[in-house]
Amino acid sequence: MNPIIRFENVTKRFGALTVLDNFNFEVRRGEKVTLIGPSGSGKSTVLRILMTLEPFQEGLLEIDGISYHEPGGRGPFKASETHLHKIRSNVGMVFQSFNLFPHMTVLRNVVEAPVAVLKMNRGEAESRATELLRMVGLSDKKDHFPSQLSGGQQQRVAIARALAMRPRVLLFDEPTSALDPQLVGEVLGVIRDLAHEHDLTMLLVTHEMRFAREVSDRVCFFDRGRIVEQDEPERFFSNPQQPRTREFLSSILGEQEQMRESLRCAQ
Amino acid sequence: MTWMQYLPPLLKGAQVTVMISLSSIAIGAILAFAAGIARTSSNPILSGIAFVYIVLFRGTPLLVQLFWFYYALPLIGISFDPITTGIMTLSLLTGAFGAEVVRGALLAVPHTQLEAARALNFSKSYTLWHISMPQAVIEMMPAFGNLAIQNLKDTALVSLISIADLTFQAQSMRNITLDSATVYTLTLLGYFIIALCIMLIVRFIEMKLRRGPAFPRSAHS
Amino acid sequence: MMYGYAWDTTTPLTFAISILPILGIGLLVTLQAAAVGYAIALVLGLVLALLRRSRFKVVSWTVAGFTEFVRDTPLLVQLFFLYYVLPDFGIVLPAFMTGALALGLQYSAYTSEVYRGGIEAVPRGQWEAATALNMTRLQTYRDIVVPQMIPRIVPALGNYLVSMLKETPVLSVVTVLDMLGLANMIGERTFEYLVPLSMVGLIFLPMTLICSALIYAIERALPKSGIPLR
Fold first, then answer.
1. Residue C190 is assigned to a structural domain of this protein
2. A209 CA to chain B: closest CA distance, Å?
3. Quick one: which of A209, A224, B74, C146 could link to B79 by a disulfide (CB 3.0–4.6 Å)?
4. Mean pLDDT over residues B79-91, rounded?
């Protein structure tokens, strides 16, 4: 089967800084992949490029067989709005800072894009949105505004909003990093449920190692714009091959153990 | 003559002042949105035209603009009646200042909101009108309020192209009665009262926009 | 002053060049009016701002009402008021001084708000720290408050200078022969307004643009944390 996502020798620079260097990466349909690594290692950039939020300078990128490089387009990587529109219809994204629209109710946040972009009729969109909000456990909040919700609730609305567009690929960019520790669980719970969806391809950037181990089919360790090591989670966590992976894992696991310990003490 | 007798002509003038001010604020607002949005456009021609318009009208004195439209333009065959000239000039000036307000407010919408809109595949114009603008408009209101007051004060200059506004009536009354202190005090009070009304209207609109829990905290204190 | 001049109206260009010297004289008047008016605005505004902070409610409210009133009424009417009413009280000033006074008065209402905002933006904790260090009121202002105000108020004050510069042509209404006054006079003589009025606009444009750019540069150069006076 063809991979749904294919990076081939992709290079991405911010000015003089090379974030991705000849990057190669493939994701199978329905696969759940977790990207971990130190900050600035390029893992979020992979998601942002996939979402067309960042251009890249060299190489080839395909989603479901569609190249990001528009055939006959105005030069490389300068695709037209129509082409970008086609690419984006495959992808959804959940942001670290939720990015809900503050001037719309929860329901409206979820309904807006299906009506405006997918041209769904409003009634149908609303019943689907209600269903999605029930799934994330927020049916009673649909007439609230984002500012009235906790961070965890906002992030769950954001997940419902992304799902309402029926993406084949769903990207999670550190979805729990902006949350208070006691709110992390409710968001991870929703993502865990989603991981059971057979058809949905998920790319998850996170620092929650235990969670990564639990939900992913594959874990990739990033360092300086390259994947240093990747494996299925059991092997990856129990027996990392590369010294840099080991170093990273021991430091981050130590930190999280400390955090849990202090939370336990606080309670 | 007592000050009571000054009131009818001054009130007549005040009517003209209010009419000119309101219509040039309305037209100016439309120009402000058009030019402000054009300035943020990625189309270089559109944003270039808006830039030249804004710089030209913000960078030169209103009185020079007014005389230019009133005295100079007819010499190359383009002429309007004084009222039209007055409203047109004030609208263009208010529009140029307002455009910078619109542009500033649009640029102040958090970048993350635009990314979220892109991730949901909204078109550029949909994002502008349904995501950016509703959030930006509220931030524009205090600055628009100041521009409206500035516009009201600027209308006094149209008396110099023979429009019978409040200032013009005051000048005529003074020339007849030579009672400068009373006439000008009443005139200043007249402008002050109109200004207070404009402030109330702007405050009311802002309150309406900000009502509800969507924007619970005032960004301006 | 203009009787000796003859202007070459053959083409717009020769006309423009021939009126340049006289507009230059007008420019000088314009700049002088702005300078005097601005000096008045800076000083009077400061007085108003300090009175506004007075402990006596009567004083602070009166000053607040006065500034609001001046800020919300037209410069032109204020100018007429001073021009025609002051002589009734025996105060006869040259038109130029009356004009500069009107400019200064109007803009003092703006500058006083800038000063006030600047003072209020200094956090309470700074005042409390100064008190804790046993500083006098004067020392607190001189060493703590004013240095922190400067980066905040200088750009705002600068922008009002540009605004005032653009309002100086109003003085031509009370017979001051600034650039616009002279341009109008040339227009009346030659029945040719297009060139003189365009010239005035074209001279103002670079002036205001350069001033704005300078203010922006100063704003960028000022350290955000403040400038010690001593």
1. no
2. 26
3. B74
4. 95
**Burial of A189 (C-beta count, 10 Å sphere; 0-12/13-18/19+):** middle
Taking the C-alpha atoms of residue B202 and residue B190, their distance in angstroms, rounded to an integer, is 19
Alpha helical stretches, state H, chain A: 43-50, 81-88, 106-116, 122-135, 151-163, 181-195, 209-215, 233-238, 243-266
B120: containing domain: 3-210
Q: Is C15 a member of any domain?
A: no
Residue pair C107/C37 in contact (Cβ under 8 Å)? The answer is yes
Q: Read off the pLDDT of residues A60-112 as tens digits, 9 standing for 90 and up.
A: 999 999 999 888 766 556 788 889 899 999 999 999 999 999 999 999 999 99
Q: Record the tokens describing residue C8, joined without a space.
A: 């070459």
B118 touches chain C (CB under 8 A): no
Distances (CA, A) of C95 to A16, B178, C100, C176: 62, 18, 9, 6
pLDDT in tens, A148-205: 999 999 999 999 999 999 999 999 999 999 999 899 999 999 999 999 988 999 999 9
Q: Distance (Å) from the C-alpha of residue A197 to the closest C-alpha of chain B?
A: 21
Q: Which of A50, A52, A54, A103 to mutate to test the interface with B (most CBs of B within 10 A)?
A: A103
Buried b / exposed e over B105-118, threshold 16 CB at 10 Å, is: bbeebeeebbbbbb
Query: H-type helices in C89-145, by residue range?
Result: 95-121, 124-132, 137-139
| Inside any domain, residue B152 | yes
**Contact (CB, 8 A) for A165 and B121:** yes
- Nearest beta carbon to residue B167 from set C77, C169, C187: C77
DSSP state of A51: T
What is the Cα–Cα distance from A245 to A238, expressed in whole angstroms? Answer: 11
Quick one: average pLDDT of A7-33?
Answer: 93
Establish if B192 touches chain C: CB-CB under 8 angstroms: yes
- Give the position of tokens 């409710």: A186
Give yes or no for a contact between B63 and C170, defined as CB atoms under 8 angstroms apart.
Answer: yes
Whether C169 sits inside 8 A of B64 (CB atoms) is yes
CA distances from A225 to A63, A69, A222 (A): 20, 21, 7
CATH number of the domain to which C131 belongs:
1.10.3720.10
For residues B102 and B31, the answer to whether their CB atoms sit within 8 Å is no
Q: How many residues belong to chain C?
A: 230
Domains of chain C: total: 1
- At B219, the pLDDT band (50, 70, 90 cuts) reads very low
User: What tokens appear for A64 in the block?
Assistant: 């479901």
**Length of chain A in terms of residues written:** 267
Residues 6+ apart with CB under 8 A from C54: C60, C63
How far is the C-alpha of B157 from the C-alpha of C166, rounded, in Å? 13
| Domain regions of chain A by residue span | 99-166
ipTM for this model: 0.91
Q: Is residue B216 part of a domain?
A: no
Q: Which residues of B touch C194 (CB under 8 A)?
A: 72-73, 75-76
